[in-house]
């Protein structure tokens, strides 16, 4: 390990034919960190991962791993010499090899005592210490993904790349396995880049989140900032749900006047007309005749999720708002309710 970042991308651009997939991507990952690469399907995430791994050559820009330039217009280091391990979707284990042989596949002396010790360590780490003699077909999907992670970590890579590793699993297993994998990565102090289109996954697992929209890094910051302080309306709308309303910022620039009243701003904005972004959890539903309810609306739909639920409210001007509430507080469809906004909001140019 050097004092350089584990990964540095400078001006990485790529296209397929006339389609620009990546536009001058700059990204840095520090040693021991987990970086989530978050974006919609087809947005270039997997292409960027393949470029880092060496499976695709960038047409412009450079890739450096642990301070060594591995790809640029003038240099190229093949995938097996980069110190990078890739965990693809659905594990991609070799079906004709045992679990132990799969884990040992990237090691140079596969039958040595050192290799057997390392394989045993990795299987212990991923919670499968007695599964070495099994074939991949004898394992569940979650177990196969843990074996794939063990195989990736066995070579002690500088960087581990995970390409939507849990997308094929059901929701319950995906969440539990995700937590296990994060624990393993933290225990091994591994640097990881985790590609996902699942916002909850990115926000709950990563130290940093890079939001990739239309081939550009729209925002790169910690998860809290990405959610609570998005830099553009596009990021705000992609990360979680938002309700957009019109407002006017006064001369001081720290409050905005809306149909819900005057609301404090998270960051100052120049005076004038603005687009205000409000999160569902910032709304409170009250009685329609409540003194604090400057806005009322009709409940058009509710959704029950057990621990909480959401309510769709239509206001008189046709605006729809999704409100997140405790499940026991869900109002009846068709009822008229008052809506109040709590907390500070973001304003963007109208």
What can be said about this structure in brief?
The chain has 350 residues and is of the alpha+beta class.
Structure description:
This protein is an alpha+beta fold and 350 residues long. It folds into 2 domains: 229 residues, P-loop containing nucleotide triphosphate hydrolases (Rossmann fold, 3-Layer(aba) Sandwich); 109 residues, Beta Barrel (OB fold (Dihydrolipoamide Acetyltransferase, E2P)), CATH 2.40.50.140. It is 22% helix and 35% strand. It is built from 8 helices and 20 strands. The protein has a 6-stranded mixed beta sheet, with helices on both faces. A 5-stranded antiparallel beta sheet has the order 13-12-11-14-20. Strand 17 and strand 18 form a beta hairpin. Helix 3 crosses helix 4. The relative contact order is 0.11.
How are the secondary structure elements laid out?
Elements: E1 7-16, E2 19-29, E3 34-38, H1 45-53, E4 60-65, E5 68-71, E6 84-87, H2 99-104, H3 113-125, H4 141-154, E7 159-163, H5 171-187, E8 192-196, H6 199-205, E9 208-213, E10 216-221, H7 223-228, H8 233-238, E11 243-249, E12 255-258, E13 261-264, E14 272-278, E15 283-287, E16 295-304, E17 308-315, E18 320-326, E19 336-341, E20 346-349
Parallel strand pairs: 3-8, 3-9, 6-7, 7-8
Antiparallel strand pairs: 1-2, 1-4, 4-5, 9-10, 11-12, 11-14, 12-13, 14-20, 15-19, 16-17, 16-19, 17-18
């Amino acid at each position: 390990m050097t004092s350089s970042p584990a990964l540095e991308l400078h001006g990485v651009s790529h296209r397929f034919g006339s389609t620009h997939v990546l536009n001058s991507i700059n990204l840095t990952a520090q040693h021991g960190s987990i970086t989530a690469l978050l974006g919609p399907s087809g947005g270039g995430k997997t292409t960027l991962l393949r470029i880092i791994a060496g499976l695709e050559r960038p047409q412009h820009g450079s890739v450096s791993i642990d301070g060594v330039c591995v790809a640029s217009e003038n240099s190229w280091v093949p995938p097996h010499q980069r110190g990078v391990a890739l965990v693809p979707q659905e594990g991609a284990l070799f079906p004709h090899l045992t679990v132990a042989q799969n884990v040992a596949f990237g090691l140079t002396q596969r039958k040595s005592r050192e290799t057997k010790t390392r394989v045993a360590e990795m299987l212990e780490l991923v919670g499968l210490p007695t599964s070495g003699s099994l074939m991949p077909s004898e394992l569940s999907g979650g177990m196969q993904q843990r074996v794939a992670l063990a195989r990736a970590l066995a070579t002690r890579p500088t960087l581990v790349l995970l390409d939507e590793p849990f997308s094929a699993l059901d929701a319950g297993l995906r969440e539990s396995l995700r937590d296990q994998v994060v624990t393993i990565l933290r225990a091994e102090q591994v640097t990881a880049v985790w590609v996902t289109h699942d916002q909850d996954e990115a926000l709950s697992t990563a130290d940093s989140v890079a939001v990739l929209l239309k081939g550009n890094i729209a925002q790169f910051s910690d998860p809290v900032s990405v959610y609570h302080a998005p830099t553009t309306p596009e990021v705000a709308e992609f990360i979680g749900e938002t309700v957009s309303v019109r407002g006017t910022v006064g001369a001081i620039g720290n409050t905005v006047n809306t149909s819900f009243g005057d609301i404090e701003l998270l960051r100052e904005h120049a005076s004038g007309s603005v687009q205000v972004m409000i999160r569902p959890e910032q709304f409170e539903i009250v009685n329609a005749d409540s003194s604090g309810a400057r806005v009322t609306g009709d409940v058009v739909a509710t959704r029950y999720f057990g621990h909480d639920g959401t309510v769709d409210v239509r206001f008189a001007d046709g605006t729809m708002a999704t409100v997140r509430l405790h499940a026991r507080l869900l109002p009846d469809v068709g009822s008229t309710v008052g809506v109040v906004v709590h907390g500070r909001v973001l304003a963007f140019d109208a």
